[in-house]
Description:
Blueprint lengths: L2 E9 L5 H9 L5 E5 L5 E9 L2 H14 L4 E4 L4 E2 L1 H8 L3 H8 L13 E3 L2 E5 H12 L9 H18 L6 H4 L8 H9 L1
Antiparallel strand pairs: 1-3, 1-4, 2-3, 5-7, 6-7
Amino acid sequence: MTALYEFTIQLDRAPDDDDLDRLFEVGLDDTAPEIFADGSAVLHVMKRSESLPRAIVSAVVDIEKAGFVPIGIEAENLVTLADIAERTGRTRESVRLLSVGKRGPGDFPKPVTRAGVRSLYSWAAAREWFRRQYGDRAASLDDLATDTLAAADLLLKARLLVDVGELVDLVKPDCVPGDVGVALQSQTA
């Protein structure tokens, strides 16, 4: 049974008219490009598939066939303390105190980056910390799609850095080292 999945893929460049024709020709006729003032571009994808991971892989393959390099996927994994508070039903001050160790068991996840004066945290890491410390009801349980998009985003970014062939064991740790081809086939099958 297939479902319709919607997600946004970041492109290496803005498409021109010929690019738009190629996107249509490779089967991405159900997408909508968006070009920003700074010259960056995304492709809003609506794809029918058996699962979100398969929809993402199919779209990435098609985008590459059209001559683009997908450089990331928009995911809602980076969050502020205020976002964490909202998602966990706490006040911002409660979460701030947890984050600096003045309340709770300590060892709150560290920020992954800073944007100006704001610290940004991984929602997946924060959610997992809340689950470990306070039980499954402490954070939203319906984040599988968000986690999948965040993982796909990280994998696309990793592909820009190195040949990930031998690193695939990090994604699928039950693989026997050297069985990279088998691991890659099972991930895309």
